[in-house]
Amino acid sequence: MRFRHFIAALALALVPATGIAQDHDRAFEAYYAGDYQRAMREWRPLADRGDAVAQYYLGWMYDYGEGVPQDDVEAVRWYRLAAQQGDAYAQSSLGWMYESGEGVAQDEAEAVRWYRMAAMQGNSHAQSNLAQMYLTGRGVQLNDAEALRWYRLAAGQGVADAQYGFGWMLDEGRGVAENDTEAMQWYLLAAEQGLAEAQYALGYMYDEGTGVQQDYAEAMRWYRLAAEQDLVFAKNSIGVLFDEGRGVEEDNAEAVRWYRMAAEEGSVSGQVNLAWMYYVGEGVAQDYTAAAQWFQTAAEQGDADAQLELGVMYDSGRGVARNSAEAARWYQMAAEQGVAEAQYLLGGLYDSGVGVVEDDAEAKRWYRLASEQGHTQAKSQLDKLEGRGTAVDTVVDSLAEALTRMLLCREQNAENCE
Fold first, then answer.
1. Residues of the domain holding 60
2. Is residue 55 assigned to a domain?
3. Domain total for the chain?
4. Which site from 49, 55, 229, 365 is most exposed, i.e. has the minimal number of CB atoms within 10 Å?
5. pLDDT 10s per residue in the chain (418 long)?
6. CA 21 – CA 23 distance, rounded (Å)
7. For the domain that residue 15 is a member of, what is the CATH number?
8. Which of 121, 152, 167 is at the close of a domain?
9. Can you tell me the distance from the alpha carbon of 138 to that of 142, in angstroms, rounded to the nearest whole number?
10. Do residues 232 and 258 touch, judged by C-beta distance below 8 A?
């Protein structure tokens, strides 16, 4: 994640204790007064003479278009000059440019190299970014232990993203024994700094009673804070609380409002929830067509439950024209993701030859998969189908045996061979 990471006192501390300091003083004074062009005029001569701090700030100003037209390529040039002189902030920024492919060809391995140089000097934001690279295996081999180590160092320096990342690893038990209580503490530190992801995680823990006593009102409070920063997951979760009356008075219309916001912003869970509200007519007028549209939006993004429900709607002709072949297609997608009900329904289509070519072997396969997950109806249908097969096999075997005896009899010229 990108960090706007310079602070006046720290920046001044980076300046060599020489006469150059006065030039930097004037540049910083202009910069923090918002007079970027004057700051650029003060820093440019210093940067041209090889001053690493000035080079870093020139890179920053080109990066953000402050006092000059925004120019990623020029930003990279100045960051590199400062980074090659060992400036940790420039190394961290150059690492980001390589990670994101801004002003330079994207190269995650090169990003890791620059992050590591800065992190080894104690740069907290580079430490956090390096941890993320280890956690996701980008530019370096995935290594939870290394991710945890760098997150811990950055979190200890107060970096909100690192506090959240460290908390998440404790929450998930990645690279460390799972510890929900300690995870909660780190989420809180990041949430109090305004990090939306941490606010959502904190809300979720209050919602579920994980690492803390369950408290729906607190869950709602943290979800709202995250939602105010447009975190889509939080909007869906607020909808769920209104839908179920947890921590607030049940209000289906308000639930629909939040589900719609989440759905329109791409939340698959929000799309599925909104589809159900249309399907059952809660908080909104019942509308099977709208339900089918939202189920389809979620299904096309790979949501197995939505794929199942869309299949059911094509199977029954609710909200869409009845189409057994289309039902089979959506059942298949959900069934391949392990949804027992979809496996059962798909087995039924193969059993009856509706929407697909009748195929007892395929019917048995899908019934069996559903049955193995405890689906009782699938087990019953599988038993019937296998029983039917056994009866047919018995008849065929008997006929084959009778034919064999008749042919043998005739070969021996015996009488009464029928």
1. 1-121
2. yes
3. 3
4. 49
5. 554 444 333 444 455 545 567 778 899 999 999 999 999 999 999 999 999 999 999 999 999 999 999 999 999 999 999 999 999 999 999 999 999 999 999 999 999 999 999 999 999 999 999 999 999 999 999 999 999 999 999 999 999 999 999 999 999 999 999 999 999 999 999 999 999 999 999 999 999 999 999 999 999 999 999 999 999 999 999 999 999 999 999 999 999 999 999 999 999 999 999 999 999 999 999 999 999 999 999 999 999 999 999 999 999 999 999 999 999 999 999 999 999 999 999 999 999 999 999 999 999 999 999 999 999 999 999 999 888 655 445 444 554 565 556 556 555 555 555 5
6. 5
7. 1.25.40.10
8. 121
9. 7
10. no
Residue carrying the six token digits 């059911």: 312
Give dist(CA 256, CA 258) in Å, integer. Answer: 5
Rounded CA-CA distance 86/68 in Å is 25
Model pTM above 0.70: yes
Is 58 inside any structural domain?
A: yes
Measured CA to CA, the distance from residue 158 to residue 406 in angstroms comes to: 92
DSSP string, 189-258: HHHHTT-HHHHHHHHHHHHHTSSS---HHHHHHHHHHHHTTT-HHHHHHHHHHHHHTSSS---HHHHHHH
**Residue at token pair 């990108």:** 2
Kindly state whether residue 374 falls inside one of the protein's structural domains. no
Q: Which of 299, 329, 351 is the last residue in one of the domains? A: 351
Long-range pairs for 33-37: beta carbons < 8 A, 24 or more residues apart = 36/61, 36/66, 36/67, 36/68, 37/67
